[in-house]
């Protein structure tokens, strides 16, 4: 199983915001530069994170991004589930649908494996993933403008 690029980027953005002091509210452009992605991609992901209540974005002078209290304490499993959506690992119902779908045991096995993956992430919080040695490395990433 491989996470989507959007989920990967969202996790990097959340991690970068998690190590900042609350009063340090970088712009989306600065965070995009720190995690080495184009601004347009970061802006889409930040919007999604706002809708999930993980990130707060304030506009104008003194504005910027901040991780919410619920975002900071959120389970990594819950966040990844929200970002990835409820889809199956395989596309049994895609067009054309798989001819084995009515009698296949693979779909159930893959669904169980996917749930085991998420269950392994459930006890881990965002705070946990930015603990040492990761946190100091994240703090070393410069908040400079991206393209």
Q: Could you explain how this protein is built, in words?
A:
There is one protein chain. This protein has 147 residues and is mainly α. 50% of the residues lie in helices and 5% in strands. It is built from eight helices and two strands. A two-stranded antiparallel sheet has the order 1-2. Strand 1 and strand 2 form a beta hairpin. The protein is elongated. The two termini are 30 Å apart.
Descriptive key words:
147 residues; mainly alpha; two-stranded antiparallel sheet; 8 helices; 2 strands; 50% helix; elongated
Cα gyration radius (Å) = 18 Å
Biggest beta-sheet profile: 2 strands, antiparallel
- Principal-axes shape call: elongated
How are the strands of the biggest sheet laid out side by side?
1-2
- The helix-and-strand class reads mainly alpha
Total DSSP helices: 8
Residue share in β-strands: 5-15%
Number of strands: 2
Q: What do the pLDDT scores average to?
A: 88
Distance between the termini: 30 Å
Could you state the order of secondary-structure elements as H and E? Answer: HHHEEHHHHH
The percent of residues in helical segments reads: 40-55%
Question: Which blocks of ≥5 consecutive residues have pLDDT under 50?
Answer: none
């Amino acid at each position: 199983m491989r996470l989507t690029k959007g989920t990967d980027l969202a996790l990097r953005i959340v991690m970068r915001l998690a190590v900042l002091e609350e009063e340090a509210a970088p712009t989306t452009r600065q965070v995009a530069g720190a995690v080495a992605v184009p601004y347009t991609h970061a802006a889409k992901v930040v919007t999604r994170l706002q809708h999930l209540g993980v990130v707060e974005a304030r506009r104008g002078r003194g504005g910027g991004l901040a991780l919410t209290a619920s975002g900071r304490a959120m389970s990594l499993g819950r966040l990844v589930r929200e970002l990835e959506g409820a889809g199956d690992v395989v596309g049994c119902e895609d067009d054309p649908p798989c001819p084995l779908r009515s009698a296949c045991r693979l779909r159930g096995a893959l669904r169980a494996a996917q749930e085991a993956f998420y269950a392994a992430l459930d006890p881990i919080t965002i705070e946990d993933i930015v603990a040492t040695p990761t946190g100091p490395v994240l703090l070393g990433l410069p908040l400079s403008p991206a393209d």
